[in-house]
Amino acid sequence: MRTVATPAQLKTLAIRRYETTTGRRWRDLTAVQRAAWLSKTEPVLRAEEGIALDAVWRDGAWQPADQIDLFAELDTAKEVA
């Protein structure tokens, strides 16, 4: 069974792809260049990994962007009679 990439793993994949594609080191880039590469590469990596572009990482898994966690809204400290 294949696991879905976390946000940190997606960033690592983007860095590796940059170094493989360009032959340059990631650490030599400026912050602006890094951000530009990540914003260009992330949608491609998400598609390859089967992650929706609008999905958000929450509670250790990718969730639909507008999904509400109902259990977080419940006050479990009070007993229901």
Draw up the topology in text:
Elements: H1 7-22, H2 31-49, E1 56-58, E2 61-63, H3 70-73
Helix pairs in contact: 1-2
Protein name: TraD protein
Organism: Amycolatopsis methanolica 239
Description:
The protein is mainly alpha-helical and 81 residues long. It has one domain (7-73). Helices cover 48% and strands 7% of the residues. The protein has 3 helices and 2 strands. The chain has helices spanning 7-22, 31-49, 70-73, and strands at residues 56-58, 61-63. Strands 1-2 form a two-stranded antiparallel ribbon. A hairpin with a 2-residue loop joins strand 1 and strand 2. Helix 1 (7-22) crosses helix 2. The longest helix is centred in the middle third of the chain and has 19 residues, at 31-49. It is elongated and about 55 Å long. The termini are far apart. The mean pLDDT is 86.
Gist of the model:
The protein has 81 residues and is mostly helical. Helices cover 48% and strands 7% of the residues.
